[in-house]
Design a protein that fits this description.
Elements (H helix, E strand, L loop, with lengths): L12 H27 L3 E2 L9 E5 L3 E2 L2 E2 L1 H15 L5 E5 L9 H11 L7 E4 L5 H10 L5 E7 H13 L3 E7 L5 H23 L12 H8 L6
Parallel strand pairs: 1-8, 2-5, 2-7, 5-6, 7-8
Antiparallel strand pairs: 3-4
Length: about 230
């Protein structure tokens, strides 16, 4: 008796291509899904964020040596939190990899002009990216809890990464004009989420770690101790 072999029907090439593209999209979106889940309900505004000792402001570029409009909005939020007694110390973290580019000092100058005493500002000159800033806040400056300040398109990633680095965090996403920079930032986050997920899993050391610094502790002591 002749044996009959049944072949599984092969999917049309176009259908296989569509399925491959869909699978790729799902995989690409997994890190972003993790990021949103990790940030969870940790997002607040300047009016309802819990009182916390330290606010962390991430660098966002300079224009002719002064904070870019996006960075200025972040610093305005930090100054508001300080004036309202919701934070005692502001840790400014940014890029100072070149002599002619110094984000932390520009941020410090802006804050002092907007009512934050110089002694309540601590500078991290090696915050080259979000993961580095979060790890250094924990390991170098001894920050266990913080309010993070950034634009809305970045704040979830900042919270997720600082939580992974051991910093219990609330995030304040400041308003921004929906211009080309805003749309670029939003699109960039889709790709940055992939690196963020890898950083959270493998926890690499920052580009520069260095010795422990007591700037935050001294600033809190000068303020009369942690907030009660």
């Amino acid at each position: 008796m002749r044996r009959v072999t049944l072949r599984r029907p092969r999917l049309p090439r176009s259908r296989r291509l569509v399925q491959a593209v869909m699978a790729g999209c799902v995989l690409a979106l997994l890190p972003a899904t993790w990021m949103y889940t990790a940030a969870g309900d940790r997002l607040r505004t300047t009016t309802d964020v819990p009182r916390t000792d330290v606010a962390v402001v991430f660098g966002a570029g300079l224009w002719e040596g002064e904070p870019s409009p996006y960075l200025a909005h972040r610093l305005d939020a930090a100054a508001t939190l300080y004036r309202e007694g919701r934070v005692e110390v502001v840790l400014v973290t940014g890029d100072n990899s070149r002599e002619d580019y110094d984000e932390p000092d520009a941020m410090r100058g802006y804050l002092t002009r907007h009512g934050v005493p110089d002694g309540r500002i601590v500078s991290d000159y090696a915050g080259f990216d979000t993961w580095d800033s979060c790890v250094r806040a924990k390991k170098i400056f001894g920050v266990d809890e913080a309010v993070l300040i950034s634009q809305g398109f970045h704040i979830r990633r900042a919270v997720a990464l600082c939580e992974a680095a051991g910093v219990a965090s609330y995030g304040v996403g400041v308003d921004a004009v929906h211009d080309a920079t805003w749309y670029y930032g939003g699109a960039r986050e889709i790709f940055a989420a992939g690196k963020a997920a890898l950083d959270a899993v493998f926890r690499p050391d920052p580009r520069f770690l260095g010795p422990r610094e007591t700037g935050v502790e001294r600033a809190l002591a000068a303020a009369g101790g942690p907030l009660g």
